[in-house]
Amino acid sequence: MKRDEPVAGGMIGTARIIGVKQARLPDVPKGKPLAQVFAEEETAPKTQRGPRKRSAGELRYEEFLTAMQLVGKVQFIESEAWKIVLADRTTYRPDFFVVLADGTPCMVEIKGFWTWDDSRVKFKVAREMFPCYRWLCLEYKAGKWRILFKTGLEPLDLVP
């Protein structure tokens, strides 16, 4: 380590260093200028995930929630507002965060069908981590709604 390199726990001016991220240098082929290698990396297309395509059930449910908001039964609606970290490299994103007219916060999950066990487990773990919210899981299949899971009676206002 060089003398001038920042070290976690050290200071830069009046700021304490809490962590140092190591930069990755690109592999430089012999005879190729370093500036050209960096320029090629900057112009290379980045692979980014775009917004997730929403299911027909999610779109229908959002229409329903908007109507409930106009009637006054729902105060607030947000689609995929939260990303809950369940464990290392394991996250869960509820489809809807809804606040009812009386202030009750609800997390709503819409499924076409339960295909993967991990989606059930993530839903269950998130429910256990945040028992202060009402949880509702609905299945939308062939134009019909079915309750897969609910906590308490309050979220019944959220069932189409």
Layout: helices, strands, pairs:
Blueprint: E1 11-12, E2 15-16, H1 34-43, H2 56-71, E3 74-79, E4 84-87, E5 90-92, E6 96-100, E7 105-111, H3 117-129, E8 134-141, E9 144-150
Parallel strand pairs: 7-8
Antiparallel strand pairs: 1-2, 3-6, 4-5, 6-7, 8-9
Structure description:
The chain is α+β, with helices and mostly antiparallel strands and 160 residues long. The chain has a domain at 56-158: 3-Layer(aba) Sandwich (Trna Endonuclease, Chain: A, domain 1). 24% of the residues lie in helices and 28% in strands. The protein is built from three helices and nine strands, in the order ββααβββββαββ. It has helices spanning 34-43, 56-71, 117-129; strands at residues 11-12, 15-16, 74-79, 84-87, 90-92, 96-100, 105-111, 134-141, 144-150. Strands 3-6-7-8-9 form a five-stranded mixed beta sheet, covered by helices on one side. Strands 1-2 form a two-stranded antiparallel sheet. A two-stranded antiparallel ribbon has the order 4-5. A hairpin with a 4-residue loop joins strand 6 and strand 7 (105-111).
Question: Concise description?
Answer:
Helix content is 24%, strand content 28%. The protein is α+β, with helices and mostly antiparallel strands and 160 residues long. The chain has helices at residues 34-43, 56-71, 117-129, and strands at residues 11-12, 15-16, 74-79, 84-87, 90-92, 96-100, 105-111, 134-141, 144-150.
